[in-house]
Amino acid sequence: MVLLESKADKRLGRQTVAFANPPVLAAAAAVAGPMEGEGPLGRLFDEVVPDRLVGQKTWEQAEVKLLEKAIHRALGKAGLKPTDLDWIVSGDLLNQLGASSFAGRTLDRPFFGVFGACAAWAESLTLAAMMIDGGFAHRVGVAASSHHEAAERQFRYPIEMGYQRPPTATWTVTGAGAAVLVDPRAVGDGAWPRITHATPGRLVDMGIKDPFDLGSAMAPAAADTIEAHLRDTGRGPGDYDLIITGDLGQAGRAIAVELLMQVGYNAEPVLDDCGLMIYDRKRQDVHCGGSGCACSATVFAARFFGDLRAGRMRRMLLVSTGAMFSPTTFQQGESIPGIAYAVAVESQSAAREEDR
Q: Is 253 in a helix, a strand, or coil?
């Protein structure tokens, strides 16, 4: 078989895509649970619900409601209706993508459900950006959600059992984040953040089997994807104001920094983690930090979108991380593969400089 390469090939190296027309993030919104609202980012969320059930009968129904709220808030900020979207790309942690699928049925738009575990946010942004840059869509809605009680019941033990969480455990974020990506030719010269590059990751499995130590399971995948992105683009960690992982927590972040150091990248000064930012670990009993699809989704939508839009940040690398396991694979003694997706998001000024 002969492999053909186009002169217009958008690939950089083995894994990274450089978008010819970097899709614009026209709006982003974050809806959070009460515990998240008590954390350091509480005042930045678009809405903090007063109870984790959100007026519903089950935790799963509550997550659907959170996701619907986030999507409608992002659309409202963009001045759009659901029918203005070409596609919706969304992910969550529930079986059969229960939150995304049930929220999607109320929006009446073509729907792509993605499961990248807690990496669903950056994976969805990657796919949506490819759709727009490829000319397959003009406006795409992106969303991700998680719920602490729903995730605990599905992946570990029902909280009613009162089990003891070990120090390596993280706390699944209750919330949802959403964004609207649009073709850059439709928005003019506004100060909109743009997705300039995307690096889909490889599945990396270091043999970890503990579902209460997912930061350690995901850290090698995070380091692998960051290394691939830097290698393919010719950039270094210092070319970014911030490299932010999704939910490695305290233990996983330290491992990722060490692994990157071993391959020649000192990311310590710029590498942070959404799971370490969303909670106050001194006041809130979350052990190693936050996790879940909503971890990187809500932190990005609540904080970093505004920083990029206002010019307080020029360029960031968002690396959402996921642990690809299920109760079945865990019970059968399988190890936990990790995955990470990276997207480079730049302010309008930084994107222009890159073009020059």
A: helix
